[in-house]
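Re: the 203-residue chain
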Amino acid sequence: METTAARIRSARQRAGLSQSQLADRLSVSRQAVTKWENGGGLPDVENLKAMARLFDVSVDYLLVDTSPDSPTATTLRQPIDLASYAPHRIRGKLVGSRAHAAVLDAYPDASEVWALSRVLETTRKQNVVEWLSALAIDTPFGLFGTTDAVNNHDAYYLVIKPHQQVLVRVGKHELESRELNETITAASFTLGHDRFRRTTQVR
């Protein structure tokens, strides 16, 4: 599968720029561009946006898989102020959601946006610990999952675009996007230790 490094290199070459010329346009060192194109690191968000404008492509186009064995590809994080968004209300729902508004603002060209419920999948070791704790000191089973649910108030979304799906996490101060390597068609799916289920179609 093509990598972010390869797409940056090919986009630069199509634009007729040398590594030094691209570095000058971005106000970075030539060594930084060389590192990006060799897969030794990723540009920060501002440099990704600048390259996307320069090459007339989307940031999503530049951010592709860097690890073929990973369920998700490159992660892009951008700061947000969730409180500044007006709640987006879906027809038939009484209460709007600022997280809905944030993800729709970040992906205005998405064909579908699904709100997701998330449950932490506990490991076998955690299940054994919970079982022993329940026997020894009468703690409730499901302690790890309950603790995670209490501490994690972020909202999760599956964003669907032509030829691309993105898992989005919306927090109070950050929006995190991870391009998925595999197409999700099921209502429920598991990524790593997280189990997700589509709940509401936002778009």
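The helical segments are 4-14, 19-26, 30-37, 45-55, 59-62, 98-106, 124-137, 143-151.
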